[in-house]
Amino acid sequence: MANAKERIEQDKQQALLDIRSEVIKLSTLIAGKIVNQKLNSDKDQTLVANTADEVLSKH
User: Fold this and answer.
1) Helix 42-57 to helix 2-34 angle, to the nearest 10 degrees?
2) What pLDDT does 14 receive?
3) Contacts of 51 (CB under 8 A, 6+ apart)
4) Which residues lie below 8 Å from residue 27, measured CB to CB, with a gap of 6+?
5) What pLDDT score does 38 carry?
6) Is 40 helix (H, G, I), strand (E, B) or coil?
7) CA distances from 39 to 4, 9, 46, 48 (A)
8) What is the mean pLDDT of the chain?
9) pLDDT given at position 37
10) Most buried among 17, 23, 40, 54, using CB within 10 Å?
11) Positive/negative CA dihedral, 13, 16, 18, 24
């Protein structure tokens, strides 16, 4: 039973990481279209990731 709970928790954490990754990709795409340029530098990705983390932590 404990193994099943651990596996469920691991799957949950992986799903959350996958969702976060998709949110960052989509946010970058949307932001790039808004400013009519591609945002693809490491600095841009970090900015989007930090903003996504901030927004997601509030919800």
Assistant:
1) 120
2) 96
3) 27
4) 48, 51, 52
5) 67
6) coil
7) 41, 34, 11, 9
8) 85
9) 67
10) 23
11) negative
pLDDT at 7: 95
Residue with tokens 């928790």: 9
Distance CA 54, CA 48 (A): 10
- Give, in order, the Cα–Cα distances in Å from 12 to each of 24, 28, 40: 18, 24, 29
> How far is Cα 1 from Cα 8, in angstroms, rounded to an integer?
11
Report residue 5 as tokens. 């709970």
